[in-house]
Amino acid sequence: QVQLVESGGGLVQAGGSLRLSCVASVRIFSDYAMGWFRQAPGKEREFVAAINWSGGSTDYADSVKGRFTISRDNVKKIMFLQINSLNPEATAVYYCAARRAIQAVTSTSYDTWGRGTQVTGSA
Length: 123
What we know:
With 123 residues, the chain is mainly beta. Helices cover 0% and strands 50% of the residues.
């Protein structure tokens, strides 16, 4: 089984940047496709980005395309989410997730989740 721990969240001014990390405790990290999701107060959890086992295939929500970049390092067993041009609408708890299959864009497709890291964009 894999365990996930997110970090890197914080308070950022509008237009600023942030890099989130997700460290995996697992024997073979490349067995897993990974995803980032977020949940704002009073809203449902929504898809942000996903990446396949090698990093060669990625998917993004339309709302973050061109501003967010997902990547992974299978040797270090870590996944990243680079957030640029952050706006207040990006304020949410960001979760990383893992699944032993191709990457997916629905939260129900993932069976392992981290506890999340808070990102707050100030106006």
